[in-house]
Amino acid sequence: MKLYHNIASTCSQKVRLVLAEKNLAFESEFLDLQRGDQFAPDYLKLNPNAVVPTLEDGGQVYIESTLINEYLDDAYPETPMKPADAAERHRMRHWCKRIDALHPACGVQTYAIAVRPGLQRRPASEVQALVDQIPDKTRRETRRSVIELGVQAPSFQGALAEHVVLFDALQTRLNDHDWLAGDSYSLADAALLPYVLRVEHIGLGALVASRLSLAAWFERIQQKPAYAIAVAEYLPQALIDNFAKAAALVEQELADSLSAVGQ
Ligand SMILES: N[C@@H](CCC(=O)N[C@@H](CS)C(=O)NCC(=O)O)C(=O)O
Q1: Among residues 107, 138, 129, which one has the least CA distance to residue 39?
Q2: How many CB atoms sit inside 10 A of residue 204's CB?
Q3: Which residues contact 232 (CB under 8 A, 6 or more apart)?
Q4: pLDDT tens digit sequence for 77-104
Q5: CB 3 within 8 Å of CB 19
Q6: Going by CATH, does the domain composed of 2-75 fall within 3.40.30.10?
Q7: Taking burial as the number of CB atoms within 10 A of a residue's CB, which of 69, 179, 225, 261 is the most buried?
Q8: Ligand 1 centre from 51 Cα, in Å?
Q9: What dotted CATH number matches 86-260?
Q10: Cα(262) to centroid of ligand 1, in Å?
Q11: In this structure, are residues 73 and 66 in contact, taking their beta carbons and an 8 Å threshold?
């Protein structure tokens, strides 16, 4: 099994969490997304969307993190991560779908707050050339605007509002359940973790701290051995510090934006 991934990417973390939970060994190929490794012609043959992760297994190529995780759970059913009950399985997939829908908003926030300062230190033409290669037009133009305008980009406030709506729904579920789908940890919990962690890393931790049941879930999931193996051990402290430093540069703007969405 070979995983093409990135140390900090949410979708990569989500797949690594499932690989770790199932104790599956894999060969690692890291892509540097700021260098543009995702646009290399050989990689585009595997993943025409120019994103990570991509999984190769048994001579087949799998893309789309949620579908990769479903594949892993089907192909390697030991330590199942889908509930047995059909209604709970639907609930699990419903959360996964909602989390997937949040992904672009997470990208907007991450780039506007945490990635932008590093990109601004590079020649504008180089950054432009990187953005120009994003195959999807909406994603490309949003990325361009966020790099140019940061937290003032038109998409930023909407991205925050999307987080509020989903985090409210999660809080309601977790008020009287430990896990998102059924009685135990599932693919839905693995899918969510990276997005909660990300808001913590980019100065938006208030979104979690103000929701006690979500915060308790976050604590709970970090106790799992798979969290250390798949997420924590990949993240260099320097990267976490850089994200925090970048968030500090826009601390007042973030406070104002949070307050505008009632946080
Ligand atoms: N729907 C895709 C989204 C994958 C995605 O957007 N990956 C990001 C990292 S989390 C990426 O590779 N971005 C590269 C880029 O923006 O150029 C999935 O779930 O696999």
Answers
A1: 129
A2: 20
A3: 222
A4: 999 999 999 999 999 999 999 999 999 9
A5: yes
A6: yes
A7: 69
A8: 4
A9: 1.20.1050.10
A10: 29
A11: no
